[in-house]
Amino acid sequence: MDGRVQPAIHQYIKEKYNVDYVDTITLAGPVKIIATRITGSLIRDLKFRVAISVDVHKSDIIALVGHTDCAGIHEPDDLQKKHLIQSVKKVKQWYPQVKVIGLWLDDDFHIVQEIT
């Protein structure tokens, strides 16, 4: 949900994956929530929102995003990146018909790195 992240992510996805629009679903610390929770209202809400993007807007790629200094995850970057990888695996199970990627932004919020 950090506004410092949005411009670089949108530009990266538009250029790399040749799309005109990027749906944005925001939540503080989503990669940790997805990686560590199996059920609950936050997971149900995320699935509902992503389903709209995939099923109604016909999105064919889902990007999960993590970044340095995340206020929703008070953990070192290496642990956040592990959550990112785990969350990508989970979301691939939810939506096997679309490409799911993990993106990481460093502390200047301009360099986007794909995490696999």
Q: What is the β-strand count?
A: 3
Shape: globular
Structural class by secondary-structure content? alpha+beta
* Rg estimate, integer Å: 13 Å
Classify the helix fraction into a percent range.
40-55%
Low-pLDDT parts are none
Overall mean pLDDT = 91
If strands are numbered along the chain, what order do they take across the biggest sheet? Answer: 1-2-3
Largest sheet: 3 strands, mixed
Describe this structure in words.
This protein is an alpha+beta fold and 116 residues long. Helix content is 46%, strand content 16%. The protein has a three-stranded mixed sheet. α2 packs across α4. The longest helix is centred in the last third of the chain and has 18 residues. It starts with 5 loop residues before the first helix and ends with a strand. The model has no long low-confidence stretch (mean pLDDT 91).
Per-chain topology:
Elements: H1 6-17, H2 30-36, H3 41-56, E1 61-67, H4 77-94, E2 99-105, E3 112-115
Helix pairs in contact: 2-4
Characteristic terms for this protein:
16% strand; 3-stranded mixed beta sheet; alpha+beta; 4 helices; 116 residues
What's the short story on this structure?
The chain has 4 helices and 3 strands. By secondary structure, the protein is of the alpha+beta class.
